[in-house]
Amino acid sequence: MHRPPVTELPHLFGMRPQDLVAHATAHGVTLRDDESRRYLAQHLSYLPGTRPPTRRPIARATVSALEATLSFARLTLVERVTDDADGFVKYLFRSPDGALTEAVRIPLLAPGRFTVCLSSQVGCAMGCVFCATGRLGLTRNLEAWEMVDALLQVRDEAPGRVGGVVFQGQGEPFHNYDAVIRAAQVLSDPCGGRISADAITISTVGLVPQIRRFAREGHRFRLIVSLTSALAEKRRSLLPVAGNFALEDLASALREYAAVAKGRVTVAWVVMAGVNTGVDEVEALGALLGDLRLRVNLIDVNDPREGGFRRADPLELKAFLDRLGALQVPLVRRYSGGSARHAACGMLAAIHCNDAAAVDVVEPSSGAR
């Protein structure tokens, strides 16, 4: 997707130490490696008010030159919604161009520990029929700095430690591959977000060329592939973009990834009552990926529309779990939080986009697009 950058100048939050050195050199500024690391750490690594004074300050002329050639724009927090039922906190951010995107702070079982779910696009082009974000359509890709800034803002107010990131919010991360990988690299850098690469997870609906590229490049970030159905026609109806790639090609790409990755290959399965919980699905999954060391993440569908997809009742769910158990693969139940306050993925943006559209009829210069 080709479009002008959100900011006129390159943004500091999209840089690793070597990138900042290269940027400075291109602008005739001498910046040592250690200075680059300290400069980035001062802006990205520490919470506000906790940045320690440096014993070796960078020359003021160098700092001024960097400030003149870099953007330090920030996202604007539009809304923060807490679901008291589960502790999920949804953040709605506005970018400098008015685009709206979301992030979610997710509490972990260990008290005071959190992971953050980040968006990668404004809307989404994948069109998954059960997804609120998919109904928004795609406006644009997020830039790396926007994803990094969302994490920093959520981290900086968290009542504890943010130790993980999952790119599983608005958008298809591998449809914005370069920017997502760059954001993950900045977030895992000791001078950036200081989050272990092993604690950063990237989700994809199953874009085969990007999965193969990810395997070739040997990133330490984790990968989750949203499968949801192992039956070709059904999967194509639920995840339309899947029609571009045969399930056999997806399975082949996952084998390439498994050959270089540590641990099990993780697939996500959005569970929908009467849709994808039958014996045929389990048999197809075993035939497709049964030779891999597999883990299946089960996620209850979250579709508040009247007549939308329903969650499986306890009896249907138990029968499905029993069938999956016969494959002898680990099963993980993932909780889809925030629904009590319209904080599930895509809901806040959809509400605000609808509001903005209504406002634009009266005042075209206002509201987000």
> The biggest beta sheet, please?
10 strands, mixed
- Give the oligomer, counting copies of the same chain as homo and different chains as hetero: single chain
Form type = elongated
Number of structural domains: 2
CATH 2nd-level architecture of the largest domain: Alpha-Beta Barrel
Q: Number of helix segments?
A: 11
Count of distinct strands: 12
Topology, pairings included?
Layout: H1 17-26, H2 33-45, H3 60-69, E1 76-82, E2 89-94, E3 100-107, E4 113-118, E5 121-123, E6 138-141, H4 144-157, E7 161-167, H5 177-188, E8 200-204, H6 208-217, E9 222-226, H7 232-238, H8 247-260, E10 265-271, H9 279-289, E11 294-300, H10 314-325, E12 331-334, H11 347-362
Parallel strand pairs: 4-7, 7-8, 8-9, 9-10, 10-11, 11-12
Antiparallel strand pairs: 1-2, 2-3, 3-4, 5-6
Helix pairs in contact: 1-2, 4-5, 6-8
Describe the model.
It is built from 11 helices and 12 strands. The strands form 2 sheets. The chain has a 10-stranded mixed β-sheet, with helices on both faces. Strand 2 and strand 3 form a beta hairpin. Helices cover 35% and strands 19% of the residues. With 369 residues, the chain is α/β, with parallel strands linked by helices. It has 2 domains: 58 residues, no CATH class; 285 residues, TIM Barrel (Alpha-Beta Barrel).
